[in-house]
Amino acid sequence: MSDMTELDKPIEVDNELRNEIRRISQHSRARRATVSKVMIALCAVALVVSAVPLVLLILQLLEKGIPVIDKTFFTTLPSTPSLIAPNATGGVSNAIVGSIALSLYASVLAIPLGVLVGVYLAETETKLASSLRVIAQTMAGAPSILMGLFAFSFVVRDLNIGFTAIAGSFALAVLMLPVIVISTEIAVRGVPNTLREAGLALGAKSHTVSLRVVLPAAVSGIVTGSILAISRAVGETAPVLLVIGGGFTNSWKPFDPVSALPLTIFENAKSEWPSQRAQVWGVALVLVAFIFVLSLSARMWASRKQQVRN
Amino acid sequence: MSLVPAELVVQDEREAVAEYNSATVERSWYHYVLLAGAILFAAVSVGFVGTIFWSSLPTWLHHAGTLLGGKGWVSPAGPFGGLAMIAGTLETSLIALVLAVIIGLGTSVAIVYLIPKRLRNVVATLVELLAAVPSIVYGLWGLLILAPWMESTVNPWLNKWPFATAIFGSPGKEFGTSLLLASIVLGIMILPTFVAISREVIAVVPQDLIEASLSLGATRWQVIRGVVLPTAKIGLFGATFLALARATGETVAVALVAGGVANAQFHLLYPGTSIAAWIALTFGEAQGNEIAALMALGVLLMLLNFGFSLVSRWMVRRQRLVLERV
What we know:
The structure holds 2 protein chains of 2 kinds.
Chain A: H1 2-8, H2 15-65, H3 71-75, H4 93-123, H5 127-140, H6 144-158, H7 165-189, H8 193-201, H9 206-234, H10 238-241, H11 261-268, H12 274-309
Helix pairs in contact in A: 2-12, 4-7, 4-9, 4-11, 5-7, 6-7, 7-9, 8-9, 9-12, 11-12
Chain B: H1 6-9, H2 14-24, H3 29-62, H4 64-69, H5 83-113, H6 117-132, H7 135-158, H8 164-168, H9 179-203, H10 207-215, H11 220-231, H12 233-249, H13 252-257, H14 275-282, H15 288-325
């Protein structure tokens, strides 16, 4: 109570001092406000600066890509321009077929195993599980060229399979695996425990609950993760560069050499023929469009499922 | 896949789920199927590290010194010196990191505090879509659009500054495709990675800290500098290291825009190369010892990358602990 009375006393300040204090505080406040405005403006500038190259990239991709895409682009095999026919680039059907085949085989290799491991990580708490979790997270960020080195050493050389689609799919599968494992684990953990408990309370065995209750509930997350993994794999150049052999035919066979869209870009970007350098923009546009469609549809599908559940 | 590490996403249901599962899942056939999958995955990852290391063994046994410190790379007979690639990797990644962190921090702050809430999800989706653009496309853009522009406009301009020759190299000897262009392209590429995490880390700084500071009369910038950034510090370092891990491992974009010359030099406008880019550029023609040397470069790359991403994850985990304590 005595404090209150202390505070209640009027403070005696002489006017000069009060004005001085007010002046300084206003000055400091004005300065702080200016600094704040400048710094916030700089942040806005940073936002614009970071957007500019990305917007430019997309615009130039559209501007240069659209003119070179026509029917023959999709349906014919590539040909090498010559002095007589400097514009005879042909199409890139081999790369389109190759890219689809590679991601198909890679999915077949990676998705079942990835889902198994993801469920294992979510449903058990062993030492193996926690070290696999760290391994999956580390592998998910590993440089993709290393997958190429692995596929070369193991599939091409040690198994003596040669430069084939299956070697490329193996590299891409190793790339996709950790992504699928992580997203499956998150999806399975996201299933409410009440669902599991309801199943167990009805007398179902735990594997029945896991297979018939938990997995169906987690399936949208698993599918989303798998699609995103595919969309990442389809754009990767480095792993397939070393092992698929760059075939010039429309081959679906796993033991044939194939080409791929990113590989075509890598090889033709430095071409001496202007027509081939121009065509590369079309390949890049098709690739980016394909990846955007894949990841956007995965995202939309996931959010719609989420709404249905809610 | 979301760019946010699993640590930020996985809920704490882990123990609860595991508790009753370990009692019931074990000993059924289902458990053994899962276990078999897990063991296969472990085998794949051990094979991944083991095969690359095994293939590089001849180089480590006989030419380790040359690989780590040698200057020339002579195909196909050797010697295979890795100094140019190691220096190029560190040089380009660090410059790219400085660019990406400065611009990325501002961008994250702007996304969290300046953009209206309704637009924030749109921006986040855009950032993630841009992170999904394959690196080869950035490389193509850098090679066909940026490189000519660097050559005609940027390089002459940079050379007007004092000490330019010391940093950038002699005028007339530089190229459009250079270490500097590689750094810029890398910076643009790792920017979405950095922003995705730093945005997340900044957004979860507790609101009451911010309000307390505002109520004391702090301006917006003082709140950001004095409260938000210090609270988010460790997580931001985590994002930085993740971006660094990405930058060191980036392959084809650097292969296209760095010039692809194995010169151990530090002038930014001269062509150079990085470990990953050099593997991509030379592996197709390589035989015998050169393959082993490239595999050894791959081992170095793996060590760098795994090191950076372990540090990054450790930091993001520490950040969660910091937030729990606040």
